[in-house]
Amino acid sequence: MNLESPENAEEQKIKPELSGRLKMLALIATIFGIGLFAGFVYSAGVGQIAESVSRFGVFGFAVILGIFFLRICLRASAWALSVYQPYSLNIRDTIPAVIIGEMMSTVIPIGIVVSGTAKAVAVRRQVPLVVGLSSVATENLFYSMTTSVLLILGALTFVRTFDIDPTVAIGIDILIGLMIAGLIFLILMVIRQWHFASEFCEWLYKKGVLKGVLESGRLQVRLFENLVYGFYRHHPKRFLPIILLECSFHLLGILEVWFILSRITEGGATFLNSFLLESVNRLISIVFKLIPFLLGVDEAGSQMVAETLAIGAGVGVTIAIIRKGRMLFWALIGFILIVKRGLKFRRLLGQ
Questions:
Q1: Whole-model pTM?
Q2: 132-180: per-residue pLDDT in tens?
């Protein structure tokens, strides 16, 4: 198999084309999010939110931009460590690619589907596309595992610390169980090297489905899986550094929330409050990624937690709005990088 030709890998369309139904679902979710956003801003009080944002100030906004850039650097470093030898990437390659991926994920309703492809395409001159995709997948596995731990700890803390409705508590307990099961599944999948994707492609090929695409495409998928699993066999010493980088990414997220609380509340900036608000934000960003900028749903989650913490519903909505400003800034940087590098959106979308 020739890894030296990114054109060949690109032609195989490793990522399936996005369906019309998914696009329609994303459009409906976006419209719903806009309505939800307007509703929460109105209920929390436009004047109160504007006053809190003004108190946060330009300096505060500059600080959270810097914090997020450090978070980008951490994930870019983890990705650079996830590249399978003899290929390599340095953070000068991965930082711009991560920013581009974040922009696609944040702005485009179906961004969660294409952000990984966008990252790999952004470094296609440094490594073959299939290597870029497999290294992104490897880093995402570490990210998923550490995120699962964050969500589990957040949910356990929330349900055990506060007096909440028993029905809600049962739902959270079920969610905790599902997250633990998912984490165990991810670990077993890597240890046992389950080739679900390539075996499914092989099954389709034998059934005569998409036979033209899968003639060589199924081999590319198998190669992709082998590169991911091969990393775990050949680079076990990189596990701890990557995990520490991913954990630091989440800790900086908690620091960001703490800093925002310290500027817009009196006494609300505690580790517990910041930890719970960040863990809920992380869960929302996963579940509702179809909605651009997490419109409405981020405000809903932050308001719910803020009310439970007794720091004010308006505070939760304000935090979500301030973070949207940060997301918009880095999305603009990502767009500038795309234009500057002469990348085509069709290519970034994997089409």
A1: 0.83
A2: 988 998 999 899 999 999 999 999 999 888 888 888 888 888 988 998 9
Q: State yes or no: cis peptide before 6, omega within 30 of 0.
A: no
Rounded-to-integer distance, Cα 277 and Cα 264, Å = 15
Across 247-287, the runs of DSSP E, i.e. the strands, are none
Q: How many residues does the chain have?
A: 351
What are the sequence ranges of the domains in the chain? Answer: 26-348
Six-digit token string for 162: 């506060």
Q: How far is CA 243 from CA 5, 75, 116, 142, 237, in A?
A: 31, 10, 19, 6, 11
46-52 long-range Cβ contacts below 8 angstroms, 24+ apart: 48/314, 48/318, 49/314, 49/317, 49/318, 49/321, 52/264, 52/314, 52/315, 52/318
25 to 39, 113, 266, 284, 290: CA distances (angstroms): 21, 13, 41, 17, 8
CA distances from 138 to 81, 178, 235 (A): 10, 22, 12
What's the rounded Cα separation, in Å, for the pair 193 and 226? 9
The proportion of the chain whose per-residue pLDDT surpasses 70, expressed as a percent, equals 89
